[in-house]
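Known limitations

Structure tokens in this collection are predictions and should be treated as such. Users comparing against experimental data should check residue numbering before alignment. To illustrate the layout, the record for EF-hand domain containing 1 is reproduced below. The input appears on top and the generated tokens appear beneath it.
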Amino acid sequence: MATAPGRPARTRVPRAGACAPNAGGEGGRLPWRRRRPRGRSAAAAMSSERGPALPFLPGCAFRDPTKTSFHRSQTLGYKNGFAFSRLPTVGIGGERLYVNQLSQAELEELSNTRPTLTYGQARQAPPSGFIPAHVAFDKKILKFDAYFQEDVPLSTEEHYRVRQVGIYYYLEDDSICVIEPVVKNSGLPQGKLIRRHRVPKNDRGEHYHWKDLNRGMDITMYGRTYRIVDCDPFTQVFLESQGIELNPPEKMVFDPYTEMRRMPMRMYITPSDFDQLKQFLTYDKQVLRFYAMWDDTTSMFGENRPYIIHYYLADDTVEVREVHKHNDGRDPFPVLIKRQRLPKTFVEKKKTFPSCVLEISDQEVLEWYTAKDFAVGKSTTLLGRTFFIYDCDEFTRNFYRDKFGITDFQPVEIKEKPPEEVPQVIPPYNGYGFLEDSLQNCFSLFPKPPRKDIIKMLENDHKVLRYQVALESPNPEDRKRRFILSYFLSNDMISIYEPPVRNSGIIGGKYLGKTRVAKPGSTTDNATYYGPSDFIIGSTIEVFGHRFVITDADEYVLNYMESNAESFPAATLQSLRDHFRPRQVVEEAAKSDVPALGTSQQELDELIVRVREELKLHNYLNNSSIREAFLRCDKDDSGVLDKAKFFSLCNSLSVPTNAVLVNKLIDLCSCGEDKINYRDFLRAFPS
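Generated tokens:
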């Protein structure tokens, strides 16, 4: 039978009162009968039709006389050519049976089950009840009482030790742990000896099981053998219920040394030669005080440290206390040696005597320290430290005077040795940061920034001296490079900038940031830096391994040095005056309306040579076209052009008139305020 896609096939269930084909009667159906309400018997239906109902009691019920059909429903049928059996839905005579009707849950299950060759999938038998181990054996533990024995090699009182433990077996995961009850003042690390886990039984990977445990047996775990002597009642009942025959219990073995300690100590009362009670009552609260010094300078970082030695007359005990000073840098421990009797001479020890002991007994000491062993001006050794006693208090003097007749208590003057001066070695400058700033790290742990001249910074703020410098290099390309060196008067720093030149192949820009440049040969102890007096026209300066030649300067440099002539050398000032003399001559001639023919020809020739070197950097200039342009404009052939026309021609021909040397040449070629002799200017552009 085809079904719609995505919808499960539905199994057809026969209705009550219907039967399979060929079951009897025409069309396979029962003869027509009268239907009655569900849940009412035939007698109840007849009684309701005839009149009042009879009570449903024994003896009052009777068979329905109107029932004429007494056949039984068939339980066999055919469907799709296959025989199948089914439970009857109606009883004898067609009476409906409610026992074999399908419940709502079964109907829903049939509606969701795809049709098969049989009446649906076979139901699986419900699984048997399963309870996991962690639920069945939760908090069920087998407890065994056991002990183990260990040797005690370094003891004269005991040769072996017996330690009692409890072995706990957890049934939920077959894990075992061993716990030793904690005994107060036992001196042994007790508690959990083996943590809870599955303990390996052998090298084949097997683990201990509760079947391997029994009373009166030995069990070895991690190299230690435990003797199981008994178990608790729950463990006994559990093992017996599992069919294990338990061995008879054994007595717990106790530690012999512990039993000996529980016995009462024997007391010996012997007469004393010295009455200690009388000494205590006589010298109670009487203490001798000595001032001593411990010289520890022989050891590394050692020093002389003062101490106070107290000798208690009541019980002949000695105490050494430290003397702390303000900001001495030491932890405040008041007592160096606590109050105790100090041994002076020991008995010669035998070779069999253990070298490590906790306390010193009277049998090991031949002589103890007494009051007569301390004296002013003498040294005494207390527990390995040698103390020199240099003074005592007044009570101590009176006691020694009355007791021993000693009257010499002259205090010894203690002179502290001056500390050895360690020369301070300044490490070499590593080049990071400023020298003064880096030097502060050598003077203190928390360096302070060096002081700055605030007045100088305020007076010279925004005052900068600018120079034109050329790089001195064996490279021909670097010789043509020009730089602008700026000297900042507020903080004596120098910066170098390279103006970018078109098509030169060199990227211009900042060449050196603001920094102080030291002169060659200066050291960290006596560092000298470049100043304005060192910048002479034509001089060479070295900046971090690069040599620069000063070729030109601003007029502001000359004006500043002339206004502060007392602060600069005469040679520096004269070099700037000689450098700016041709320009001054031109300006004076312009003011007096005299042409600049008075300028010496030698100075003009020198300037033209320098301009030619400068113009070699500008490879894009065409000298022949420049000459033709100027000659074409001078129609009168007078050799003089107007300034405006002259500068317009220079701009159209890309002549660098903003260069310092070119501008100086233009000033020398000026003939008045608005005329320029271009013939001298063209000498800088050879054909």
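For this record: Residues 513 and 576 are 26 Å apart (CA to CA). DSSP finds 17 helices and 24 strands in the chain. Please report discrepancies through the issue tracker.
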